[in-house]
């Protein structure tokens, strides 16, 4: 083949890529953290069918699950200013990540809450615990533990999906790649590199999340 | 003094009437063994006493207070009535010690030092002081059930309800659990036990209740009932289990 | 400036929606076929084949769809192949779909008790017969809900192809939004378009899941 591969352009722009990687990680971290909190609230209100709140969450989840991330992003970034809500690319990306991970975590954590055997709840009740105490001390941790692998997979999927945030100029990894591409015209090399960076990120994020799961959720030494 | 007084208790699940007017009473320190065929309403009765099930007609009095079925009264009721389940129901994410400490800590808001001491004492009482830091899945069924007993005792209940607590155990593990219960009985704990261990019911029980089709069919001293059953139902039940 | 009536907007979006549905459908059919091949490779007794399939799946599950499309587009261009946005979108989504479906189906096959393999082996079936008569028929039943569920991901994935210039509903929406200065309305309508395609699929997936759970409990 006549084409000469050249990765020099990438090497000289490594700082841009590193910054892109960092921002993708930050985006994912914020999305996961806030998303899991929303997910926990949603899961409990749906599992207990709290009036109003559980319906609100049902509608929210269906809206998020049945529309593409990119369209949500455009709606928030381009559409919301009509309502006076002006967000920059980064803020809109963070918001969309949170909204998505909130919806998916709700579904996943709810499955975890439902997976707790009824007997455990009765044991908590028989020890004079109220609903909140039972939730806080008996249900939540085993529930999260049961669904933690599913939650990790979802976080990785959404992180990879966040690549489209480049479209509204959020300066994450894909944005950096696009920028270098337009400056150097080394399209294949730069996209290959950033693809591999994503692959590494996916592996590392999964590893980290597993560690977090063991450390904070399982919380036991072998 | 009567600790528990149940009068004409009725309970239905939909159209199915499970308890059809149950009456009996239990004195402080008394050990009551309940026997009967599967489906006769034994578990339901215990669950009503612990507020895990609501009930229809009838009066249930525990420690001088009438059980109302109001949500607000559930916690005070359960502070007096402990329960041990057939399936142990230990909290899998907590060690044996933490299982015992949890409710005193979060429900009674007792201090950390105090509940640690308490848990140690309770685990000692069931012979498992050395398993304080073991997780439930590292314990045998018999040990798990003993931890469950310690967990219930840590709340200092006035009465302990035991629903077939040895039924899920391998035969060789039954005795270690029964020994613990026997010691509790000797220490003056009020006990209501649903059991299939007839020898145990006979030797440890002060009173035997034979439930049949949602009613107390016969009640009296165990020795008396086993040797001279008054009804053909009890006679055939005794024959079938001996 | 040209004046757009609401009907103008909607009718253009409907055309884009047609492309979205068509692309999703084609990618799903082709992706299932390729996914079946990947599944057989992934659970084959040949370790090399297994490893290759594993790498394939991990690559497509571990990288963004957008990057896959870029690589495909620019990679083929390097080889001197000029490729349309539609072809890039179709090939890219097919590969993406095949990897996910192969992994979903592997989970279903492996969730069958090992006794099923042993029992069929004890009846002197060869591997192909075991698959054909014992494993696949059971796996298909449990795989229906997650497979239908994944079809929603395929539909949503088609939105990403707008970035490489394929004129499906999102791309159409972007152009109309730019022309009309009504992004809120247009993207709202685009979102409704996706919802109308995806919600029935999600609902159906949930229903078959409940039903298969019910038969399982029986
Ligand atoms: N939650 C419930 N809903 C409907 N029926 C129940 C429920 N719990 C128990 N029953 C029915 O009540 C009857 C008595 O059950 P139970 O008290 O468990 O009997 P026992 O413990 O003596 O075997 C049985 O026929 C059982 O099927
Ligand atoms: Mg029972």
Automatic annotation (TrEMBL), chain A:
<feature type="transmembrane region" description="Helical">
    <location>
        <begin position="21"/>
        <end position="49"/>
    </location>
</feature>
<keyword id="KW-0813">Transport</keyword>
<dbReference type="GO" id="GO:0006865">
    <property type="term" value="P:amino acid transport"/>
</dbReference>
<keyword id="KW-1133">Transmembrane helix</keyword>
<feature type="transmembrane region" description="Helical">
    <location>
        <begin position="190"/>
        <end position="209"/>
    </location>
</feature>
<dbReference type="InterPro" id="IPR035906">
    <property type="entry name" value="MetI-like_sf"/>
</dbReference>
<dbReference type="InterPro" id="IPR043429">
    <property type="entry name" value="ArtM/GltK/GlnP/TcyL/YhdX-like"/>
</dbReference>
<keyword id="KW-0812">Transmembrane</keyword>
<dbReference type="Pfam" id="PF00528">
    <property type="entry name" value="BPD_transp_1"/>
</dbReference>
<feature type="transmembrane region" description="Helical">
    <location>
        <begin position="147"/>
        <end position="170"/>
    </location>
</feature>
<dbReference type="GO" id="GO:0022857">
    <property type="term" value="F:transmembrane transporter activity"/>
</dbReference>
<dbReference type="InterPro" id="IPR000515">
    <property type="entry name" value="MetI-like"/>
</dbReference>
<dbReference type="GO" id="GO:0043190">
    <property type="term" value="C:ATP-binding cassette (ABC) transporter complex"/>
</dbReference>
<feature type="domain" description="ABC transmembrane type-1">
    <location>
        <begin position="21"/>
        <end position="209"/>
    </location>
</feature>
<dbReference type="InterPro" id="IPR010065">
    <property type="entry name" value="AA_ABC_transptr_permease_3TM"/>
</dbReference>
From TrEMBL, chain B:
<dbReference type="InterPro" id="IPR027417">
    <property type="entry name" value="P-loop_NTPase"/>
</dbReference>
<dbReference type="InterPro" id="IPR003593">
    <property type="entry name" value="AAA+_ATPase"/>
</dbReference>
<dbReference type="InterPro" id="IPR017871">
    <property type="entry name" value="ABC_transporter-like_CS"/>
</dbReference>
<dbReference type="GO" id="GO:0016887">
    <property type="term" value="F:ATP hydrolysis activity"/>
</dbReference>
<dbReference type="InterPro" id="IPR003439">
    <property type="entry name" value="ABC_transporter-like_ATP-bd"/>
</dbReference>
<keyword id="KW-0029">Amino-acid transport</keyword>
<dbReference type="GO" id="GO:0005886">
    <property type="term" value="C:plasma membrane"/>
</dbReference>
<keyword id="KW-0547">Nucleotide-binding</keyword>
<keyword id="KW-0472">Membrane</keyword>
<dbReference type="InterPro" id="IPR050086">
    <property type="entry name" value="MetN_ABC_transporter-like"/>
</dbReference>
<dbReference type="GO" id="GO:0005524">
    <property type="term" value="F:ATP binding"/>
</dbReference>
<dbReference type="GO" id="GO:0015424">
    <property type="term" value="F:ABC-type amino acid transporter activity"/>
</dbReference>
<dbReference type="InterPro" id="IPR030679">
    <property type="entry name" value="ABC_ATPase_HisP-typ"/>
</dbReference>
<keyword id="KW-1003">Cell membrane</keyword>
<protein>
    <submittedName>
        <fullName>Polar amino acid transport system ATP-binding protein</fullName>
    </submittedName>
</protein>
Automatic annotation (TrEMBL), chain C:
<keyword id="KW-0813">Transport</keyword>
<dbReference type="InterPro" id="IPR000515">
    <property type="entry name" value="MetI-like"/>
</dbReference>
<feature type="transmembrane region" description="Helical">
    <location>
        <begin position="184"/>
        <end position="205"/>
    </location>
</feature>
<keyword id="KW-1133">Transmembrane helix</keyword>
<dbReference type="InterPro" id="IPR035906">
    <property type="entry name" value="MetI-like_sf"/>
</dbReference>
<dbReference type="InterPro" id="IPR010065">
    <property type="entry name" value="AA_ABC_transptr_permease_3TM"/>
</dbReference>
<keyword id="KW-0812">Transmembrane</keyword>
<feature type="transmembrane region" description="Helical">
    <location>
        <begin position="20"/>
        <end position="43"/>
    </location>
</feature>
<dbReference type="Pfam" id="PF00528">
    <property type="entry name" value="BPD_transp_1"/>
</dbReference>
<dbReference type="GO" id="GO:0022857">
    <property type="term" value="F:transmembrane transporter activity"/>
</dbReference>
<dbReference type="GO" id="GO:0043190">
    <property type="term" value="C:ATP-binding cassette (ABC) transporter complex"/>
</dbReference>
<keyword id="KW-1003">Cell membrane</keyword>
<keyword id="KW-0472">Membrane</keyword>
<protein>
    <submittedName>
        <fullName>Polar amino acid transport system permease protein</fullName>
    </submittedName>
</protein>
<dbReference type="GO" id="GO:0006865">
    <property type="term" value="P:amino acid transport"/>
</dbReference>
């Amino acid at each position: 083949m006549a084409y000469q591969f050249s990765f020099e352009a990438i090497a000289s722009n490594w700082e841009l890529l590193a910054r892109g990687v960092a921002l993708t990680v930050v985006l994912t971290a914020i999305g996961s953290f806030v998303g899991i909190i929303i997910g926990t609230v949603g899961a409990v209100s749906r599992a207990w069918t709290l009036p109003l709140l559980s319906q609100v969450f049902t509608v929210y989840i269906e809206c998020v699950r049945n529309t593409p991330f990119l369209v949500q992003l455009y709606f928030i970034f381009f559409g919301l200013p009509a309502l006076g809500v002006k967000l920059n690319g980064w803020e809109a990306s963070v918001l969309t990540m949170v909204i998505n991970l909130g919806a998916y975590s709700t579904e996943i954590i709810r499955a975890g809450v439902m997976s707790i055997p009824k007997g455990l709840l009765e044991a908590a009740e028989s020890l004079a615990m109220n609903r909140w105490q039972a939730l806080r001390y008996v249900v939540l941790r085993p529930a999260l533990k049961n669904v933690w692998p599913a939650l990790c997979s979802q976080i990785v999927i959404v992180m990879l999906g966040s690549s489209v945030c480049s479209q509204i100029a959020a300066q994450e990894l894909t944005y950096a790649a696009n920028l270098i591409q337009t400056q150097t015209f080394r399209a294949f090399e730069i996209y290959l590199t950033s693809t591999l960076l994503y692959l590494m990120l996916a592996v590392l994020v999964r590893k980290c999340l597993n560690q977090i799961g063991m450390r904070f959720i399982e919380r036991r030494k072998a | 003094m009567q600790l528990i007084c149940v009068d004409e208790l009725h309970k239905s699940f939909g159209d199915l009437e499970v308890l059809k007017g149950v009456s009996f009473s239990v004195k402080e320190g008394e050990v009551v063994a309940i026997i009967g065929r599967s489906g006769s309403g034994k578990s339901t009765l215990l669950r009503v006493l612990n507020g895990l099930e609501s009930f229809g007609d009838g009066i249930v009095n525990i420690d001088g207070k009438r059980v109302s079925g109001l949500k607000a009264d559930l916690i005070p009721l359960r502070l007096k009535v402990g329960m041990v389940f057939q399936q142990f129901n230990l909290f899998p994410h907590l060690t044996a010690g933490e299982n015992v400490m949890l409710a005193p800590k979060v429900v009674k808001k007792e201090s950390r030092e105090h509940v640690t001491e308490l848990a140690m004492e309770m685990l000692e009482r069931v012979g498992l002081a050395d398993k304080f830091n073991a997780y439930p899945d590292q314990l045998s069924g018999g040990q798990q059930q003993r931890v469950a007993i310690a967990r219930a005792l840590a709340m200092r209940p006035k009465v302990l309800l035991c629903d077939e607590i040895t039924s899920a155990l391998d035969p060789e593990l039954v005795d270690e659990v029964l020994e613990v219960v026997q010691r509790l009985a000797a220490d003056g704990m009020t006990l209501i036990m649903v059991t299939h261990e007839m020898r145990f019911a006979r030797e440890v029980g002060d009173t035997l209740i034979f439930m049949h089709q949602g009613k107390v069919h016969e009640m009296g001293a165990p020795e008396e009932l086993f040797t001279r059953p008054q009804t053909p139902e009890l006679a055939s039940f005794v024959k079938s289990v001996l | 400036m040209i004046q757009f009536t609401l009907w103008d907007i909607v009718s253009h979006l409907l055309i884009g929606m047609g492309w979205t549905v068509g692309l999703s459908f084609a990618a799903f059919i082709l992706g299932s076929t390729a996914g079946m091949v990947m599944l057989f490779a992934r659970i084959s007794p040949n370790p090399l084949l297994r490893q290759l399939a594993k790498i394939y799946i991990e690559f497509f599950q571990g990288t963004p769809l957008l990057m896959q499309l870029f690589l495909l587009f620019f990679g083929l261009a390097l080889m001197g192949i000029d490729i349309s946005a539609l072809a890039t979108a179709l090939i890219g989504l097919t590969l993406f779909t095949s990897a996910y479906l192969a992994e979903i189906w592997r989970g279903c096959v492996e969730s069958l008790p090992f006794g099923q393999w042993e029992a069929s082996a004890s009846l002197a079936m060869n591997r192909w017969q075991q698959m054909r008569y014992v494993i696949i028929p059971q796996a298909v039943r449990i795989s229906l809900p997650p497979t239908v569920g994944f079809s929603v991901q395929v539909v949503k994935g088609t939105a990403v192809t707008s970035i490489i210039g394929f004129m499906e509903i999102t791309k159409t929406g972007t152009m109309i939004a730019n022309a009309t200065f009504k992004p809120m309305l247009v993207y709202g309508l685009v979102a409704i378009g996706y919802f109308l395609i995806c919600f029935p699929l999600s609902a159906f997936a949930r229903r078959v899941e409940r039903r298969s759970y019910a038969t399982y409990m029986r």
